[in-house]
UniProtKB/TrEMBL annotation:
<dbReference type="InterPro" id="IPR001806">
    <property type="entry name" value="Small_GTPase"/>
</dbReference>
<keyword id="KW-0378">Hydrolase</keyword>
<dbReference type="Pfam" id="PF00071">
    <property type="entry name" value="Ras"/>
</dbReference>
<protein>
    <recommendedName>
        <fullName>small monomeric GTPase</fullName>
        <ecNumber>3.6.5.2</ecNumber>
    </recommendedName>
</protein>
<dbReference type="GO" id="GO:0003925">
    <property type="term" value="F:G protein activity"/>
</dbReference>
<keyword id="KW-0547">Nucleotide-binding</keyword>
<keyword id="KW-0342">GTP-binding</keyword>
<dbReference type="InterPro" id="IPR027417">
    <property type="entry name" value="P-loop_NTPase"/>
</dbReference>
<dbReference type="InterPro" id="IPR051065">
    <property type="entry name" value="Ras-related_GTPase"/>
</dbReference>
<comment type="similarity">
    <text>Belongs to the small GTPase superfamily. Ras family.</text>
</comment>
<dbReference type="GO" id="GO:0005525">
    <property type="term" value="F:GTP binding"/>
</dbReference>
C-alpha cells in the first residue's frame, strides 16, 4: 500500500509543529525548533488496516534545498492548512494557500477534493484575543471546499488526533480512487 503524504501548511508560528508533535507524541512542549523542514513518518491503524503516514512540516526560515510551496503541494495527497485565530494575517495566508492548492491540484472535475483539504484555526485557547471569528473560518472553508476545524494544540489532544486520523482516512480513500 502506498504511503499517505500529508502537508501541514500555513504561516510561521501558527502551531504547525505543535499540532504534529501533539498528534505524534500526545504532548505539547511549547517550543519547537524549526531550523529545517522535515518529514515525520508514522505507521498507524486505520479501520483495522495498517497505513504508513508521512507528515510534512515546513520550516519558515529560508534554507538551502528548501522546497517551494508549489513543490510541497504537488508532493502531498492531503493538506492541513493552519492559521492562528489570534492572528488575522495568518488567516489571509491560509486563504492564499487554499487558493493555490485548488489552482495547482484540483480542477473543477475533482469534486471530492474537499475530503483531503482541511482548514484548521489553531490556538482556540486564545479566544480572548481572537482576531478571526469562527464564522469567518467556516465561510472560507465553504468557499474553498474544505473541512473546517477550530482547535488548540495546547489543550486539545483528542481533537487533534481525530482531525489527523480523519485526514489520513480520507486521503487513503482518495488515493485509492485516483
Ligand atoms: P509553526 O511555526 O507553525 O511550526 O509554529 P510552532 O508549532 O513552532 O508554534 C509557534 C508558537 O505557538 C509556539 O510558541 C507554541 O508554543 C505556540 N502554540 C502552538 N499551538 C498553540 C496553541 O494551540 N495555543 C497556544 N496558546 N499556543 C500555541
Ligand atoms: Mg514549525
Amino acid at each position: 500500500m502506498n504511503d499517505i503524504k500529508v502537508a501541514v501548511l500555513g504561516s510561521e508560528a501558527v502551531g504547525k509543529s505543535a499540532l504534529i508533535v501533539r498528534f505524534l507524541t500526545k504532548r505539547f512542549i511549547g517550543e519547537y525548533a524549526s531550523a529545517s523542514e522535515c518529514i515525520y513518518r508514522k505507521r498507524l491503524s486505520i479501520d483495522g488496516r495498517q497505513q504508513n503516514l508521512e507528515l510534512y512540516d515546513p520550516c519558515s526560515q529560508p534554507s538551502e534545498g528548501k522546497s517551494t510551496l508549489s513543490e510541497q503541494i504537488h508532493w502531498a495527497d492531503g493538506f492541513v492548512v493552519v492559521y492562528d485565530i489570534s492572528d488575522r494575517s495568518s488567516f489571509l495566508t491560509a486563504k492564499a494557500i487554499l487558493h493555490l492548492i485548488r489552482e495547482l491540484n484540483f480542477g473543477a472535475t475533482k469534486r471530492d477534493a474537499d475530503a483531503v483539504v482541511f482548514l484548521v484555526g489553531n490556538k482556540q485557547d486564545l479566544c480572548h484575543v481572537r482576531e478571526v471569528s469562527r464564522e469567518e473560518g467556516q465561510q472560507l472553508a465553504g468557499e474553498t471546499h474544505c473541512q473546517f476545524y477550530e482547535l488548540s494544540a495546547a489543550e486539545h489532544c483528542q481533537e487533534v488526533a481525530l482531525m489527523f486520523s480523519k485526514m489520513v482516512r480520507n486521503a487513503s480513500q482518495h488515493s485509492k480512487a485516483k
